[in-house]
Structure formats: structure tokens, C-alpha cells
Amino acid sequence: MTEIFNQDTLPLFWGAIVAVALAVYVALDGFDLGVGILLLTAPNERERDVMVTSVAPVWDANETWLVFTGVGLFGGFPLAFGAILPALYLPLIGMLLCLAFRGTAFEFRFQTDNRRAFFDYAFCFGSVGAAFCQGLALGALLQGLNVKNGLFAGGTFDFLSPFTVLTGATLVFGYALVGATWLNWRTEGELELRTRRFALGLLPVFAVLLIAAIVSAPLAQPRIAEIWADATRRGVGVSLALGIVGGAVGVLAWRGRGSGRAAFFSSIFTVLCVVLLFVATLFPFVIPYEATIWQAASPERSQIVLLVAALVMLPIVGSYSAYAYYVFRGKVKSEAEAEAALAEAATDNKSSAPAGNVL
Amino acid sequence: MEIDATILSRIQFAFTVAFHIVFPSMSIGVGLFLVIVEFLYLRTNDELYQRIYRFWSIIFALGFGMGVVSGIVMSFQFGTNFGRWAQAVGPVIGPIIGMEVVTAFFLEAGFLGIMLFGWGKVGKRLHFAATFLVAFGTTVSAAFIMSANSWMHTPAGVVFENGRFVVTDWLAVIFNPSYPYRFIHMLMAAWITGAFFVAGISAWYLLKNRHTEFARKGFSISVGLASILLPLQLYVGDVLAIDVMAVHQPAKIQAMEGFWETTPDAQWNVIIVPDQKEQKNHVQIGIPYLGSLFVGKDLHTPVPGLKETPPAEQPKMWIVFYGFRIMFILGCVMFGAAVYSVYLRWRGRLFTSRAFHRLMFWLTPAGFVCVLSGWITSEVGRQPYTVYRMLRTADSVSPVSLEAVATSLTLFVVVYLTLLAAFIWLVVKYIRRGPAEPHAAAQPGDKPEAATIGMAWGGAKPKAIEEATGL
Hints:
The structure holds two protein chains of two kinds. Chain A contains 14 helices and four strands. Chain A is mainly α. Classes of the chains: A mainly alpha, B mainly alpha.
């Protein structure tokens, strides 16, 4: 058993987990940031309440995958963690501050009536800002980092270029798309109709931006063309590209009929494939294009602890996370409808036998 | 002192971590209170406990959110501003925090939704399980982070080679010499902080003669909790300082006591004006013999002076000294209040002594002040090292420009102070409004209660109304 885990394979295993964590983060926080991005498109407070309520019980757990990705780099590839984060200083600081506005706005907005609009702005701009900064960071990684001897050796604005602004915009629209399909699935009435139109409208915009980003990547960084010259990688790339297109077709085929569930999962599938395409471009580098996962890896004893902890705990985490989504399944009603349900339950229970403690 | 990226990074880290620690302290403390209250609700079915729970869970949620967003900042700041430290300690601290994430963070986040929004969607016992798991998650979180932080103070189980720490013994790393004491000390500090916070606000309602039944119950539970914990905390603090840190980090204890020369028959310094350059105090006022008494438990034991440590290894005395004095003196005041509360309870005057209620009201933030000054003592006392005697702060910072850090520091200060202002404004507003009265009809403009939000998802049939809302 211990022969599987050695200096050559551990970085692969742990690298795979970090890559999966990144993909899961982008998919999960993607849709709740997407809801935030779309928040101000709702014409009234009631609809905004419904939008926020739809993600209120799950946003924190979704965002925790970002911490897991970062800490996974910190513990598993510390050379990379300490080199990459200074290189992406301003976008990461920007992301953290935007997430601070977004996260607090969740709790704060329910505590006030006349100031709620202020928190709505914080929520929306925080979400857009966080998404854009994340996109800048991913683009900067594709561009490559100026890292010498394991230390960032470049300038404060190295991360900023037309290419990274493009990847920033791409991610914003990608999140908006999954946010729209989520809202369509989970809401009713006007909101359901509006987000249906948004989803179908955002998809082509996202597609154009994504294709532009993919096409201009080798221009921004010639090494990307060399990397993709390899046949095996091409095979993986084509499969992922098919996945992306398949997901898009899933959203289009739905065309607004029936349950939005299939469209939501199709859009999530597309986003997952995009992240994996990103990982496939950079592999085996973890500091692009200076150090591989083997060069940046922690000593074995550290990676094993991480791996065991993750392999034991992540299935458990997955189970209770899925349970939480199950508890909060179904369409989100507006406050008035919720109160009506409350009143109905009251009359129901007065006439029926006591329900007893249902676990 | 010249302004460079290093000092700005240190200031930024100090500011952001000080801001952060306030909120987990409240979450851990109020979390324990909520577990106790909901347990009592399940046992007695008394609707009063449900009202207490519902009221305090909103404040808990507000603070928890602040803790989450400021916490994410910390895990990334290790890399952005202290990248060289991160590369060196990653193999050690990374896996510890990794374990914290997959156990505690996901657990808290996963069940927080059910705790806050799940009334009416899950049964009473499952809801209590959610509350318990969230509170348990905060405790597990403290357990892991205190291990990582303690390792920085008393590193063990590692060798330093090729620019990084390599673990030779994981048990020695995790259970490093100062860990058990610092963990218990912090955990109890958080519980005490939460208790005084709840007690102080309850005392305000008692003084205003509002929601008396609600306030009395909350006051009784929180004050009772404080009176059990405070004597233990003083004991643990003493052991931590004298038996553990004096051995492993003597410079910190030397700076803490405020003497430059080792002094027998020592007073307990209360006011000093130290001069680090001259290595002496211009002013030194204290209580006779108490210094030796604290350190050696007799009147003559010499208190070690900071000159026993070479100047290049010395932390800044004025910060460590006053940090500790503030924490300790305020801690003694809190201890006094706790002892007095036991006396009052015995005499049946716990709910009627207005003087005591006024005292507790003013002590509402006392726990937070102690936590902050204690942490300042701890972390500044470790300087000039990040990993004690193994990695210096000067070798820990990231190669980022002065302009970049100046920008981020400014942004953090502006954003955090804005969020803090909003937080305080909302909490004060919420406390002023007070808990919902029992069996009150819903007024127009009432905030969506947790039960209503729980009803907002159409997936499951609403549970029995008594279970769901306690109305």
C-alpha cells in the first residue's frame, strides 16, 4: 500500500485533489456569486430577497472550497503558495475585500428595511469584483509568472494585461450564467421567467468570451502553443472541449421548457470542464512556467497527512453538504408566500394529530 | 523606524488578525451559550428558551459572517505578505490548517444553514444536532489553529533543511510544549468572552426593565458560566506563563514583567516607561513583593530581567508589558464580578442588584479587550521571530512592493472599519428592538424570522407548528 505513495506519486495525487477543489469551488461559489452578479437586475426588493434566500444556507460551505484550495497549495506545494500569492497580490487582495462585502451583506441585509438597498449594492459589486479578480488571477497564471529561485521577482502590475482583463470578464459572465440557471431552477413566477431569458442570453456572450480567451491564450503566452502540441494533451483537451460544448447544448436544448434542473447541471458541467481545461494547460507546472508539482512539493510526510485527511473527510463532507442541499430543496417562495405556508401549517396542525418528533 | 514593505506587512497582518479574532471569540462563546439554551429547550419544552435561542442566534449569525470573511483573508495573507514564511513552514502548518478546513470549517459551514434557516424543515432534535455541530466545529477549529500557532512559539518535531521545515515527528509537532495550555486558555477565553457579552446585554434589559423573564434567564446562564470558568482561567493562565512560557520563551516573560535587571524581592510593576535603546525604565511604579510572589510563589524569588536576553533577540517591552497588564487586570476585575455574582445568587439578589447589573453592562466588551491584549502580548512577545529561534520575521516577508502593501493596508483599514461600523449599528439596533414577545401578532415591517425563511423552500412539508416556531 505504501508503495503507491512515494515522492513521485504523492504530488500527482495531491495535485489532483487541489485541482478538483478548485473546480468544485468555481462551480459552487460560481452560482452564488452569479446570483450576486444578477442581483441588481431584479426590479424590486421582494425578488432580491428571494434571490438571496435561494443561496443563503449554502454560500458559506461553497466558499470554504476556496480556503481548501489555498490551504491545499500551502501545505502540499508551499514553494508555489509562497511564490504565486505575492505575484497575484493585488487581484487576490481585491478578491478578499470583495468577498468580505459579499459575505457580510448576506447577513446584514436581512436586519434592515430602509437600508437594504445599500447592502444590495455591496452584495452585487462584491460578487462582480470577486469574480473579476478571480478571472484576472487565472489569466495571470496562464500568462506565466516572473518567479526566480522560488521567489516572485516581477512587478506589482505584471498580472494586468488585455488578456487577463478578458479572462476576468469571461469568468464574470460564466458565473452569471450558472447563477441564472440556478435561479431559474429554484424560483417561480416573474423571476423564473426573467432568469430563463438571462440564461439563454448569457450563454452566447460567455461562449464568445471563452473562445476569445482560448484563442488569445497562445498569443499572450507562446509556451501554451508548445504545450498543446503534445498528442495526449490534445486528446484530453478535445474531450474537455466536447464537454464544454455538450454542457452548452444542454442549456440550449432546454430552451426554457420544463424544470430548470437539467439546464443548471449542464451549465455547471461546462464550467467544470473549463476549469479542468485550465489545469490541463498548466500541468505539470504549479508555478507557471517555472516549477512543476514535483519541484514545489512538500516533503512526503506532509503530503501524506494532507492526503489521508482529505480522503477520509471529503466523502463525509460531501455527504452532509448534499444533505443540506436536500433540506433546502424546492422552489424558493417569497416572504408573503412563506407566511401563507406558515399559516396553512398552523391550521393543518390544529386539526390533525400532533406530528411528534421527526428526526 | 523606516517605513518599508516589511513593517507595513506586519501592521497589516496585526490589524487584520486583531479584527478577525474578535469574531471567532464571540462565535465560540455565544455558540456554547446557544447549545446550552437549546438543550434546555429540548428538555423542558419551555418556550422561553426558544425565544432566547432565536434572539441570540441572529447576533451569532452576524458575528459568524464577519468571522468567515475576515478568516479567509488570514489564510491568503500567509501567502501574499509572508510568502517566504509560508514556503518554509508550509510542510508543518499547511497540513494542520488543512485538517482544520476538512473537519471544522466544512462542518460549521455545512450545518450553519440548517441552524439558522432550518426551523420547520427539520425536527427539533436534528436542529439541536445542527447547533451542536456548529458550536463543536468552532471548538475543533480552535484546537487546530492553536496547535499551529503554538508550534510557532515552541517548535518541535522538525528539522530545518534546504530552506524549509521538514517534519520528523507529527505528534511532537501537534502536541508541542505550549499547545495544551494555550488551547485551553484561548478556548476558555472565548467562552468567557461570549458569557460576558450575553450577560452585559441581558443586564441592560434588566436595567431598563424590559423583557424581564427573557433577560433573567439569559443573565443567569451566562453569569453562571462565567463564574465556573474564570477561576479555572486564572489558574491556566498562571501555569501557562510561569511553568510553560518562562521555560520555552523566557524573553517574553522578561518583557512581560517589565524589569531590565533581574530583580529579587521584586515588586509587581504597574506603570513603567521603558527605554529599549538605553535598556532601562525611566519610570517604574509597582506593588511591593507581588512580582516575586507571582513568579516564584514566595516573596524573594528573582524576577528575570530583559537584559538576560541579547538586544537583538528582545521583543518590544512596552507592548508586551502593557498588553499583559491590561489583560490580567481586566481579567481580575471579571473574576471579581464572577465571585460577587455567586454571592448575590446565594443571597437571592442576582436579579435585583442594580449596581451589579450596571457593572456587568460596562463589562460587556471586557472579554474582547482581554482577548486582544492577550494576543498582542503573545505575538509581539515572540518577536523578532515568526518561528521562535528558528525563523526570523525579517526573513519571512514576501517580495512585494511598498506601494502594493500600502494600498492593501489602506483598503483593509477602510473596508474593515466600514464593515465594523455596519455590524455595530445593526447589532445595537437589533438589541434596542429586543426579542419578539411571546404570542405577538406579526406587525407589518417585521423582519423575516428564521421560521419564515425556513418555510421559504417548498421541498418539504412544514413540520408541526409548535416545533417550527415556538409561537
